[in-house]
Design brief:
The complex is a heterodimer of chains A (225) and B (491). Chain A contains one helix and 17 strands. Chain A has one helix at residues 15-20, and strands at 11-13, 26-34, 45-50, 54-58, 62-63, 69-76, 78-85, 106-109, 115-121, 127-135, 144-150, 153-162, 165-170, 176-181, 188-189, 208-210, 213-215. The model of chain A is unreliable at 1-23 (pLDDT under 50). By secondary structure, chain B is mainly β. The relative contact order of chain B is 0.08. Mean pLDDT of chain B is 90; it is low at 1-12 and 14-23. Classes of the chains: A mainly beta (225), B mainly beta (491). At the A-B interface, strand 1, helix 1, strand 4 and strand 12 of A face strand 26, strand 29 and strand 31 of B. Strand 4 of chain A pairs antiparallel with strand 31 of chain B.
Amino acid sequence: MWKCFLLVAGGMLSAAAIADEVPASVGIIRGVALDENLRPLAAAQVWAEPADGLLRGMINFVDSDADGHFSIDHLPLGTYNVFAKKEDEGYPMIDFEFYRPGRPPTVTLSTSKPVASTVVTLGPKAGTLTGAITDAVTGAPVGAAFRMWHLNKEHADLSTSVASDYRVLIPPDVDVVLEVHADGYETWYYPGYGAAASGPLRLRPGERMSLGIKLQPKLPAPPGK
Amino acid sequence: MVDGAYYASSSETADCSYYGEFLDANQPPEQEIGAPVINPGGVTDALDTSMGWEYVDTSGYISIWGLWLDADKTDMNPQVTVDDPTHIQLGTPSYVSDGQINVPFTITAGVATGGGSPHNITVTTTYGTSEPPDELYIYDATPAIQSVSQTPWTAGSTYSGVTISGSNFGTICPSVAISGAGATTFTVTTGTCTNSSVQGTVRVDPNATGSSPSVNATLTLTSGGYGQGFQSAPGGSSQAPFPGVEVLAAAPTITRVTLSPNVVGSNGATMTINGTGLSGATPYLPSGFSITKTSGSSTQMTLTVNIALSVSYGTNCCYASVQSAAGKSSGSAVFTVDGPGYLVVTGSSMGHCGGCSTTVKLLETYQIMNGVSKTAFSTTVPVCETPVLSNWSCSQAQSGMTYNRCNVNPGTATGGAFTDGWGLTSDTYTPVGCGYPTSGGSQGITDEWLFNPAGATVQWKMGNLYGYILANSVSINGYVDGMPVGTLIEP
């Protein structure tokens, strides 16, 4: 797989123009994925995104091996952020401010140095929130969207669509505001309906919490309103 | 020397003198005319004098051999009678010699037949009546087949109203057997039997020809006689063989084709072909199918197949046929192959990028779905896209565009799933809210995702996306915060 860079100073960027771009050369980012204890993390999904650029296209994940090593090949020369995740073990996507605040480190591939090495560290593990979202009246399952943000940093946020049986990762040791909304239902705030009851959710690293969420259907508007 | 007649044999020589008439040794001495005498066995067919019998349902002449049958040719007025004048009608004798007369006859069904039922023949002249009478035997003639209609026959077919024509079939319906064509049968149709034809239904064994393009069958008719069982003449037979009936191999047929699993990229899938004439047949499948194992019977063929990702697919997209060992081809039978048809959203995450206070990005995860069955397509396959980006509005030059181009660098959808990113990756771009906006009816981004199997002549459209990417907002297919799980993305 190889990719192309486009340098366009505004205006329209057409598919034809994209297709005409041929990379002068490509590079490789190699590295190792480690957990919070700096132990190799196998089977982590690793990828590179253009730093300071446009993210538009498939995320091409590569898996780390048993020693945590990975290699991302055929990258056009440029500067990248390298991310990783292993969500089934509680390591979320660290490319969002919500999970890992701050500018991510960069890796640069150049003509003189087309192969670069880096270390991607995951952890500590997130908390895991699981449960079912249902209609409070009928008990029917409801697909919904979670909007979550740090209590003290609203732009450290994440919106994610989930099915009725949900599983979301919560950054550890952070007060998180949790909002659940679905078409046709009143918005739900953790820990439940009623402003007085709303408050932040805080989980420890690796903590698991089961939470059933019952959404109240919106009442129909009165006639003539 | 004696006085009188001397009879000499042909080997003797005589040394004598005789002044009288020498008589032929074979001629009895002339004597007075008496009552007619029929030689023992002296009733024969006129044309075949070795045949001392006649057949039922025939006409002709018999010859009667003897003495004083018609010595003066006219005056004796010989009359020939038989004991069953109803069924054996004799005409006026015709003179041949004093020792032979020919008598026309007509023998009809109902006459007593067989070696145990001789018929007495008596000759009467003005000099008396032959005594004892001689015997005429009546038998059933050996049947013969002259033609069989509706030939050649095709294996596996049924023919009604097949007519066998010939002679001497009898008045009782004959039976008909067929050999050399497997279990092919001829069933006589009741009420169609005559002495010269019979009709019936032929059911030709589907495997009558085996692996040969054709075989020659022999049809054998067995006469049932004329009501007394078949009474065979000496050297005769009740059976009439008719060889050389051509039976052609049948073209195999296909009544149904099933394939499971029927999804492109499946290895070890089972295809079942139902039909006829499938034993030893060779199956033919579309390009991209490879057959690893074949088994079955004449009515069902089971194949183990690998289905390449590059196979063309869709409802009733594909055709199977078979060719028999005899080289006959079946018609084509349609079947369905499933494959990537559309996308469904299985996850959506949107938030500020790491280190960003104003810039957001969106990650959408899609599952490829089979277009026909609406089930998940779970094979790892190459996919590609054809993005068109418009209306760039930031002050800075845009950089970092990456995408997976069809037939060049397709991406990999592991297990049929992939994640698509939309957004900018830092707060570098200004003014706030710049990017690829939708403007003047022009989408900032349109993008089509395609299934891109290696070796395929076309890519298969799976889903169309449209929307905008701004530094602080992303919209895709009308959803600003990402699409709900379960949203369908169709071509």
